[in-house]
């Protein structure tokens, strides 16, 4: 084994000195100046007194003072310039961001200390978050338009597949009724017309309730969610359980609408993608917070791998955006083959907690 030479140890010691906090850099520099000045002044004074015992020492003192001030100024200027270099780099980065450059990152180098490093790291993280939010804002209008088009397409498909077909059948039966001369057969056509009319009205009513359920305005979030879960259970043959606590009083309309839409979108995703057999929905209000939890035992997925430009990804993004509108949050817990759990939280204003 080879021992480390003193020359090899100097760079590490020098780097440690450079990494000292700025306070200790200035303190150390001034301590060195005072120490070396005291030693040099003593040596020169003793030498001067021995060689020139009858000469005045005021000139020597004035010389020491002038030289000390000059050396102190030069050393402190050198130390401060290098110690404050990280702040100069931070200021330069801030100026670049103000000019619209979003890809700026701060690298402080070896002269920086731990405090400056934390400041630079925080600044870089803020820039990364800002850049991510800017990219999301650029994509958001396209995603909103896509979501609107998808919703229009779904409504058009529902109207065409159900209500339009029922109305077409009504026209066919009306023409058959016009041509029928047998009273018994005409009575059968009339009965079928009543059933088709009721079916068409039910489909139009269902589409209208999907757009804006009147039960939400009349009876509140709890009743609307129970109704939605019941409709979901009948349409998809899924076992469901609903638990609602703490909703003795109505919530603000914006909170009720957001939570209803989040629950509606979550159930819609379960129906389209999860192939679940059991679904549980719980809505709780406690300690000034309203919470909605929706759990299914379906096929699950990896939320991190869900592209935002897919229908399901757009639905999840829309749920998060809705929760953000009321200062809430949305958590999605899921793994392939292990089902999905969606949790939405939102605070209530002090005036809404009584």
What does this structure look like?
- The protein has a 5-stranded mixed beta sheet with strand order 1-2-3-5-4, covered by helices on one side.
- It is rod-shaped, with a radius of gyration of 38 Å.
- With 354 residues, the chain is α+β, with helices and mostly antiparallel strands.
- Among the domains are: 6-114, no CATH class; 218-354, Heat Shock Protein 90 (2-Layer Sandwich), CATH 3.30.565.
- It has 10 helices and 5 strands; from the N terminus they run ααααααααβαββαββ.
- It is 67% helix and 11% strand.
- Mean pLDDT is 79; it is low at 1-10.
- 16% of the residues are buried.
Number of helices: 10
Strand arrangement within the widest β-sheet reads: 1-2-3-5-4
Tell me the total number of β-strands: 5
Query: Span from first to last CA?
Result: 76 Å
Low-confidence stretches: 1-10
Biggest sheet layout: 5 strands, mixed
Estimate the mean pLDDT confidence.
79
| H-E order | HHHHHHHHEHEEHEE
Give the topology.
Elements: H1 6-18, H2 22-51, H3 58-83, H4 85-98, H5 114-179, H6 183-211, H7 214-219, H8 221-236, E1 239-245, H9 253-274, E2 278-286, E3 289-296, H10 311-325, E4 329-334, E5 340-347
Parallel strand pairs: 1-2
Antiparallel strand pairs: 2-3, 3-5, 4-5
What attributes characterize this protein structure?
354 residues, alpha+beta, Heat Shock Protein 90, 5-stranded mixed beta sheet, 10 helices, 67% helix, rod-shaped, disordered N terminus
Q: What is this structure, in a nutshell?
A:
This protein is α+β, with helices and mostly antiparallel strands. It has ten helices and five strands, in the order ααααααααβαββαββ. A five-stranded mixed β-sheet has the order 1-2-3-5-4, covered by helices on one side.
């Amino acid at each position: 084994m080879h021992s480390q030479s003193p020359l090899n140890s100097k760079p590490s010691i020098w780097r440690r000195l450079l990494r000292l906090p700025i306070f200790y850099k200035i303190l150390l520099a001034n301590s060195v100046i005072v120490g070396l000045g005291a030693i040099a002044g003593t040596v020169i004074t003793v030498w001067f007194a021995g060689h020139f015992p009858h000469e005045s020492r005021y000139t020597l003192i004035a010389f020491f003072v002038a030289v000390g001030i000059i050396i102190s100024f030069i050393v402190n200027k050198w130390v401060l310039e290098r110690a404050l270099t990280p702040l100069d780099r931070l200021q330069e980065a801030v100026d670049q961001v103000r000019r619209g450059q979003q890809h700026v990152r701060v690298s402080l180098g070896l002269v920086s200390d731990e405090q400056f490093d934390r400041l630079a790291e925080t600044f870089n993280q803020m820039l990364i978050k800002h850049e991510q939010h800017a990219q999301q804002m650029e994509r958001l209008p396209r995603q909103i338009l896509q979501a609107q088009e998808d919703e229009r397409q779904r409504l058009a498909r529902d109207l065409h597949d159900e209500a339009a077909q029922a109305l077409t059948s009504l026209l066919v039966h009306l023409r058959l009724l016009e041509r029928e001369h047998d009273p018994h057969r005409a009575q059968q056509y009339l009965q079928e017309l009543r059933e088709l009319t009721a079916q068409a009205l039910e489909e139009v009513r269902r589409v209208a309730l999907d757009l804006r359920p009147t039960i939400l305005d009349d009876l509140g979030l709890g009743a609307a969610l129970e109704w939605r879960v019941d409709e979901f259970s009948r349409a998809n043959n899924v076992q469901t359980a609903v638990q609602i606590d703490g909703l003795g009083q109505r919530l603000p309309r914006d909170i009720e609408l957001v939570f209803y839409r989040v629950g509606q979108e979550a159930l819609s995703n379960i129906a389209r993608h999860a192939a679940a057999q059991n679904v549980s929905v719980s809505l709780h209000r406690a300690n000034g917070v309203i919470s909605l939890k929706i759990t299914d035992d379906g096929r699950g997925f990896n939320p991190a791998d869900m592209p935002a430009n897919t229908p399901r990804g757009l639905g999840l993004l829309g749920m998060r955006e809705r929760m953000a509108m009321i200062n809430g949050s949305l958590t999605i817990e899921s793994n392939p083959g292990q089902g999905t759990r969606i949790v939405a939280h939102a605070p209530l204003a002090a005036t809404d907690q009584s």
